[in-house]
Structures are given as structure tokens and as C-alpha cells.
């Protein structure tokens, strides 16, 4: 039963098998919920020796861009208050 209204955080999507070239297939429901498209770049993080985390590169770029803008604003305010 697919429910695309659920937020994917904490969602269990099934299993994946590591192929000969080290590739895995992300389950279809996970790709749909995360709106992953063919060719989309992903970041792979090692959480510990037995766990990986995957994030969209485009999402990380948005976050860092947003934080960069906020830091510039904070620096400007700090300079004015000296």
C-alpha cells in the first residue's frame, strides 16, 4: 500500500543488493517520495562502519547557499553594531 502523503523520514523501503560494481538500486517508492530523477547526483555519507546515509546534492547546495546568505547578513549586522 503506497501512501505518498507520508513524509519519507524514517520510512522503511525494503532491501537493496550490492552488485558486482558496487551499485545498488534505490527502491521505486523511495525514488518517488524523494522525487529522484535519472542522473541526479547524490552524496553518500558513512554514518559509522555499518551505516550509510544518502542525500540529494541539489538539496545540500540549497542549504549551503541559504546559510551563506544568512551568514553575510549576520556579519553586516555585527559590523554595524561595533
Overall description:
This protein has 82 residues and is of the alpha+beta class. The chain has a domain at 37-80. Helix content is 37%, strand content 16%. Strands 1-2 form a two-stranded antiparallel sheet. The longest helix has 24 residues, at 57-80. The protein is elongated, with a radius of gyration of 18 Å. The model is unreliable at 1-5 (pLDDT under 50). Pfam families: MazE_antitoxin (PF04014). GO terms for molecular function: DNA binding. InterPro entries: SpoVT-AbrB_dom, SpoVT-AbrB_sf.
Summarize the structure.
This protein has helices at 28-33, 57-80, and strands at 42-48, 51-56.
SS summary, helix count? 2
Mean pLDDT: 85
Q: What does the largest sheet look like?
A: 2 strands, antiparallel
Task: Look at the helices and sheets and give the structural class.
Answer: alpha+beta
List SSEs in N-to-C order: HEEH
Organism: Candidatus Daviesbacteria bacterium GW2011_GWC2_40_12
GO molecular function: DNA binding
Protein name: SpoVT-AbrB domain-containing protein
Domain SpoVT-AbrB: 16-62
Amino acid at each position: 500500500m503506497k501512501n505518498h502523503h507520508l513524509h519519507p523520514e524514517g520510512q522503511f523501503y525494503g532491501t537493496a543488493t550490492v552488485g558486482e560494481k558496487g551499485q545498488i538500486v534505490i527502491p521505486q517508492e523511495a525514488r518517488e517520495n524523494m522525487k529522484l530523477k535519472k542522473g541526479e547526483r547524490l552524496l553518500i555519507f558513512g554514518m559509522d562502519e555499518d551505516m550509510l546515509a544518502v542525500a540529494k546534492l541539489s538539496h545540500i547546495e540549497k542549504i549551503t547557499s541559504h546559510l551563506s546568505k544568512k551568514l553575510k547578513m549576520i556579519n553586516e549586522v555585527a559590523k554595524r553594531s561595533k
